[in-house]
Input
Amino acid sequence: MFLPASTVLPRRRWLQTAAATALTTLSQPSLSASAMTIRLSHVVARDTPKGMALERFRSLVEERSQNRIRVQIYPQGQLYGDHDEMQALQLGAVDMVAPSLSKFGPIGFPEFELFDLPFLFDSVEAVRRLTRGTIGRTLLQGLNRQRLMGLGFFDNGFKHMSANKPLLEPRDFRGLRMRIQGSRVIAQQMRSWGALPVVLPFSETRRALETGVVDGTENPVSNFWTQGMQAVQSDLSLTGHGYLGYAVVTHQRFWDNLPPKDRNLVQGALDDALVFGNEIADAQNDKALAALHLTGAANIHNPSPAQTQMLKKASAPVHVELATRIGPDWLNTVQNALRKTS
Ligand code: LMR
Output
């Protein structure tokens, strides 16, 4: 049982209803040996790296379980969004979510904001060497603090800046209101360039750009394109200043309820789907960029090496500020790991 997507309830009512739903759900065996449905919610379009990876997860689970286990995906924030997807997971109103790593800081996991550090990574391979090693395992285990289970990491790619003007060096950002995810590191990044960070849910971003609530934002090209942001942002500047990746998360209660053989089947399908997602992520971002070039729907700019150096220099203090927030040992561990593998 869950709230139909069309239901729009005032927040308080929603919580009461979701709690009642969860209790109902919990009072019934959420799984039976015969058949079950995994409800998975995410906030982006289907034809994005995340959307396609999770679709692959669905088809692998259904195929390998001979449809005994179904996966119902709710994309584009149809069911839950940035405001409430983690609450919905805690209440058992949804079984899996796949938020951006930038969305874990505000819910009590500031260590995840290391992925938001501007210009920390020079490639997704460098990120994967972290997420596939001890650091990745430690981060996922840390989610147990709130009875969450981290099931795996996967990529989208590097973020670029958009607005109705080129954004190539710090002075271009001065005074601009820039939509960001709820990460303190990203907020500091924007401030270091003279912009005003504005935290908004992903689902409200395009409208906020259209109405002038914010002047610009940052996205991988696949999100920029699939959300139609080119209709409300005239300029895309390929700064590649930060990384956007995801973690698939479930609740311990759901995971513990799964019979061991189903747990193995679901984890195996997810592992394979995330490898697939990483394989297609670059291609999806390249396809979106090619579409923008072809349609001429946005002016596309490349910062010069000198301009990139200016952005890096201005945002360097964010690394120190984060060390204070998450503990210097975290950052030292990450930097040592990156040095070893570069
Ligand atoms: C955003 O909020 O900009 C991204 O986290 C959306 C997504 O999930 O890719």
Q: What stands out?
A: Residues 1-11, 23-32 have pLDDT under 50 and may be disordered. Residues 260-295 form the longest helix (36 residues). The chain has 14 helices and nine strands.
